[in-house]
Amino acid sequence: MPEPRSSRIFRPQTYASPCYHRFTFLSFGIAMSYVPLGDGRTKPYVETIELTTKHNGQPTYSYVPPSRLPEGEIDNYNNFQEHILSGKPSIDNWPVKSQQVAILTPLRGSILVFDILLASSPLLFTVLAVAVARLDGKVPLTGSYKLEEMLLYTPTVFPLLFAALMGRFFRHLGIWLAERGTTLGRLEQLIGCQSVFLAIERQICLRNFSTVGVCSILIWLLSPFGGQSALRVLRQEARYLNTTQTLHYLDPLNTDNSSMMGASAINSGRSTFTSLFLAALLSSTDYQTRPADLWGNVKLPSYRALQNSNSNDWKPVPDYNETTIKWGSLIGIPVSAFNGEDFTMYATSHFNIKARQFDISCTSNEEKHRDVTSNKTWPIKSTWIVRTAIQQPDCTGNSSCKYVGCDAYPCPIISTSLSESTVYEAASVAKCEYHYDYVEASIECTRSLCKATSMRKLDMFTDGYTEDQDSFIRGVVMANLMVTMPSVDTVGVTSANVRGASNMERWLMDPTSFIGGGGNTVNLHELAVDVFADRLTILWNSFFQATYAARALAGNLDKATSTNIFNSSSGQAISFNATEGLASQRVDVYRVDWKWFAVLLSCSLVLLFAAYAGLLLKYLSVAPDIIGYASSLTMLNPYVPSPTGGTTLHGLERTALLHDLPVRIGDVCPSEPVGAIALAANDGRVVGLDRKRRYI
């Protein structure tokens, strides 16, 4: 007499035959039924299933669990019985009653909300791609830096979401097709396609290179491309905004206010021009080779040293980093915008300036015997003298005698310097001549570094410079310069020759190592003629520039807001010339790589489509999700006793309910000549596999 349904429990059937059992096919399936046996319990247990068969046709044979326990498996059987009878496998919430499939329950509704949110996550990458596209050509702002940070995280997040959503898509597509009928091979390709390597593995192992398999591989390859495209889609590049600015540079006509214009001016400005000149002379070799002086003023090369300097065309100035440039002076030309700001704040600036510079060339440089007559000693207070080579009248006792200056360039001069000689008293004598050139230079400033890039020679008597001014320069100014410069560091010393060579002589001998030379003299005649001429040109121009507009040379002009600057010694105003400069201000802007943008957007849209398609297929399918789960191997498995029903459970739901059920893959017919491998309950009747045994 059957018990009521609520009290039914199920026990495994004990088979009379050892391993083979006879049953028949009904249509195309095996017809099996559950025979309940009750002992008064109300909850179903996993060991209470009993299988019987209906014989409806020609008999066939199948493997069933053996009736006797193999040797050595008694302990496993006892453990299994203890596990069954302990009450632990008592399964609450097991669906023992018939029910509809895929109905909407509160739990299923909450899962649906989660699935919608998960499927919508690729919208983040789509929105990110659109936001990146809008940044093209724009200046970085505070919010845009956060967007850059999000792009850095994308290569990590994108593959994770891609694997989750694309795997769900292929899985639910396979279930949807299986519900409507498909081939086992196609189902395996879709369900097993959870990564690019698994997709390739399915293609190789199934020996069937189908369109579905190839497409799945190509789709999975989008994952790394989508992640890496985020790192390459956006970059910053420099854009230069051109603008004009008015700059002011030192007017060459300030030479009219040189301290060399007279004895009184020399005495008034001595402390100023001596400090400036010696500071430039004693500066490090690094500063002397740079295109700017100690105070940031623009230094100009010697025009004669440039290639093809004979014509009046623009001559390029070599890069000072690649070659040694022969500078015309150690002191540069001051330039400022006079607006209280550094005009080099722009990335690049281009402008032209004009200047005048002396150029000295020599024809000889040799050692000669010093004139010594009637007990005369060296008639000057220095070891070095520079004088004009023009014959001067004998002015002894003649107060109205005048100095004869140079009438036209080139103006000849003679440099005489005491030399070291152990045989006789001698001096290094060089015969030279100087020119006075008017040049224009093109200046390029990059940030705070300004340098001349090209130069050309201009007509001497232009821009307000007259012949009278030039005559005064050639006569009075140069005469005072030749007297003052050689003794600028030994002024007031009675016997300067006892002290040794001056700093200027030592610098002429070796500009890189001349400080602290001791009381000895130097042999300037050992220098090549052109080397001596180039170094004398630098000294000549440096000293002359230090004698006028001193406040402009080291006056921190970037902070000045007006050109009303006066010399401290003479009280005369310093004049500046205006020049229009083209300034290119560097602005960093975003630049989108549109190829990588297309990759990012395409991968994001494909992922978004797959996510929503997988969501739709999941809830369109009526069949439970049982494919690919280990618990699905226990469904209707004669070797795994399980409660009646449960066919509506999803794979994970079944696993959660049967998680304590001990199982084992082994030989379910250990007593037969040929074994059979199956997943079975580890109740002692299933033994381990043996490499030497044969299995069907």
UniProtKB/TrEMBL annotation:
Highest taxon of the lineage: Eukaryota
Keywords: Membrane, Transmembrane, Transmembrane helix
Segments crossing the lipid bilayer: 112-132, 152-170, 204-222, 594-617
Name under which the protein is recorded: Uncharacterized protein
Organism for this UniProt entry: Ascochyta lentis
